[in-house]
Each structure stands twice: as structure tokens, then as C-alpha cells.
Amino acid sequence: MDELFNRSDWHNFVQGNKKSLEEEIKKYNGNKLLNTSEDDLVKYFYDKYFFNVPEINESEISVEQNEIDIDVSRDPMRSIWDRNQPFYIKGTKITFYIPFSGEDIFFSVQPSHYYMKRISGKILNGCIIHSISSPDLTTKKIQSNIEQYLREINEYINTQRKDSVPYNNALEGTIRRQLQNRKSKLLANQNLVSSLGFKLKENSAMPTSYSAPEVKRKNIKLPPASSEPYKPEPELLEKDYENILSILENMIHVMERSPTAFRNIDEESLRMHFIVQLNGHYEGNATGETFNYKGKTDILIRSNDKNIFIGECKFWKGKAQYLKTIDQILGYSSWKDTKVAVLIFNRNKSLSTVIKTIKEATIEHPNYKKTINDSSETKFKYRFSQLSDQNREITLTVMVFDVPSE
């Protein structure tokens, strides 16, 4: 049997993992890094370097019993002249197979608090193998032995689990910061920083009559990516995206304050109200039902012949139709269309039920990646991958509104 928890002290183990993470990110292929979703890379490195401390599954312990020959030549009851020669008698060997989940490397690492009691055992195929043997084993002795052994093992790994908390809590932020630093250096070296975003030109003469009041390890697989030279593509700046969303939202507030004026409005008429407002702010660049990539979209904003925002206006017709709308807007999107929106209008149905269905259905979509935030009770921002390439990401905002018909 090997001695457990004795090969590396905790401090050196943690520092070694931090160094390995830093070096791996530094050496990661630059074009692949730029061509891969940042969230996917964060997840890959997080899964690889997360401290998954073992947990003992005591309910699945199994036992094996064998008869063996035991050398009792060192028995103090034997005369001093007989102790230099082997003397065997029959005895019993009990072997415990103790399954665990987590990473077996932790059985070679000393926790921050090192116990004087030495623990022996063998780690094999997700089990700790612990054996005891004696000529006179009894049930009481066996039970006492295994209880003490499990108690000592758990003391070590429980200390490791506590030691892991600050490391694991800081891991995602550490990875994202190192990736962003590496990406910034790569882009700076290629002189591409200026190509990362559009600044949309607003129309300063736009009247504000529609403006609403301001509301105060492991078998971890690398994400697939091309190693071809990275080609930057313009994207809509986040502040411009939020401004477009606020324009759409302000128009909705107008509808909510004047429900009778919009009681019998259809989807096409709804769309035109939004396009009028967007054209006022962005100098006639918003169009409706424009062909784009694989289909037509309700609202499209172009800048310098680039599609930089697309939106869909839909009345709520159930979960299946909602998922179809997501497919539709993902199908519209090309590489440059990185920020999109779906406006859902609800008529004569429970708004809370509609919202609950939307939240549940969205994360079921195969191209869903993560929830960015819920900025309000009726506005949700998500990250999706495009239909054709998981590294081409789309920010999708879903806004839900009541439009009464009675």
C-alpha cells in the first residue's frame, strides 16, 4: 500500500496550478483564441483547472475476504531466538473498496492542516483500496478499523475542500482576465483595435416626444476553432445596442399608456411604429421586411452597408412558435449581425405565465449558451451561437409586453 496525502504541500499545489493555467493561456494559438468564443474558452479552462476535491461514497463500499499466511515472527510473545526466522500462521485479510467522485490527484496532496496520523491505501479505478489482516479478526475489530479509516480520510479531504473555496471562487475571473489580456495584446500587435466596433451616428434633431421618463479536468475537450488568421468584423457597440433597445422600449411605453389606440393593431403596423422611431434616431437606416442572409426580418438597421441590428416583432402564440422565432432570427443572422432582439406582444393571456414559458423555453434551445442578465421583469438578455458556427455568437434580447385587445 502507498502512503496517501504526502507528495505535495497545498501551497505549492495551488501555485503550480495557477502557473500551469497562465502558461497554457500564454501559449494558446493566437488565431484560435481570437476565433473562439470567450465564454467557451473560459468554460474549458474552468473545467480543466477547477479543484474537484474527492467525496467518499460510503453507501457503495464493497468488501473482499481472503485467507492468507501471516508472518508472526516479530510477535513479542515469541522468544528472541525465534524472531529472526519467518513463522507463518493462517489468518484473514479484509479488503475494502471505497468509491469516490472527484479527482484522485488530491490523495497525493497535503491539505493546509497536516495531520500526524499517516494514512496508507491504494488509488485505483475511482476507489481507495484499504486492507487489514490478522490471525484473529473479529467483526468488532473490522468495524472499528474501517470507521476510523474513513474518519481520517474525510478529515483530510474536508480540509482540502475548505482550502479549495477561495481558489475556485476566483478561478473564472482569473481566467477571463488572462484571456482578455492576451486577446488585447494580440489585437494590438495586429493593429486591429480600431476595427472592433461601430459608432452609430445619431440624429441630434430628433424630437423627444416619444421618450419615456428615465428609469433610475479531467477529460476536457477544447472548443473547436479555426487556426486561420483572425479577421476582425465590425460589430454594434454595446451602448448603441442598449440605445436601440431603449428606443423600442419607449415606444412600448407609449402603447401601454394609450391602449385603446393600439387595441386592434396588427404585426405589420406595430413594426412600422418602431421603424419610424428608429429612423428618426438613426437617419433613415431602419427598414422593414428586408432580405437578410437566409430570410426576411421585421426590423433591420444598416450602417455602411453592414447589418448591425435585426429585430422581430411577434404576437405570443405559444412555446413552439416562440422557439421557431428564435430559429428564424438566428437564420437571419450572419457573422456581422451580433446583436438582435425579439419583441413579444401578449394579448389576453397571463403575462406571468408567458414570461415563465419564455424563460424555460429559451434555455432549452440547442444554440443557447448563457443568460447574461434579466434587466427587468419583462426584459431578458441571452447569448446564443449562430446556427452554423458555435464561435459566432449573438446577443439576443427578449422583451415581453402586454398589448390589450379589449
Looking at this protein, list some descriptive labels.
406 residues; alpha+beta; 2 domains; seven-stranded mixed beta sheet; six-stranded antiparallel beta sheet; 37% helix
Strand order of the largest sheet: 9-10-11-12-15-14-13
Largest sheet: 7 strands, mixed
Q: What is the count of helical runs?
A: 8
Number of strands: 15
Rg (C-alpha, Å): 32 Å
**Approximately how much beta-strand content do the residues carry?**
25-35%
Identify the overall geometry: elongated
Low-confidence stretches: 192-196, 207-216
Arithmetic mean pLDDT: 82
Helical content class: 25-40%
- State the domain count: 2
What class would the helix/strand composition place it in?
Answer: alpha+beta
Terminus-to-terminus distance: 79 Å
Order of helices and strands: EEHHHEEEEEEHHHEEEHEHEEE
Write up what this structure looks like.
The chain is of the alpha+beta class. It has 2 domains: 2-186, no CATH class; 238-402, no CATH class. It is 37% helix and 26% strand. The chain has 8 helices and 15 strands. The protein has a 7-stranded mixed sheet, with helices on both faces. Strands 1, 3, 4, 5, 7 and 8 form a 6-stranded antiparallel sheet that branches. Strands 2-6 form a two-stranded parallel sheet. Helix 5 (238-257) crosses helix 6. The protein is elongated and about 105 Å long.
Write the layout of secondary structure elements.
Blueprint: E1 2-3, E2 8-9, H1 10-27, H2 30-35, H3 38-49, E3 55-56, E4 62-71, E5 88-101, E6 109-110, E7 120-124, E8 127-134, H4 139-189, H5 238-257, H6 267-281, E9 286-292, E10 295-303, E11 306-315, H7 319-332, E12 339-346, H8 351-364, E13 368-376, E14 379-385, E15 393-402
Parallel strand pairs: 2-6, 11-12, 12-15
Antiparallel strand pairs: 1-7, 3-5, 4-5, 5-8, 7-8, 9-10, 10-11, 13-14, 14-15
Helix pairs in contact: 1-4, 3-4, 5-6
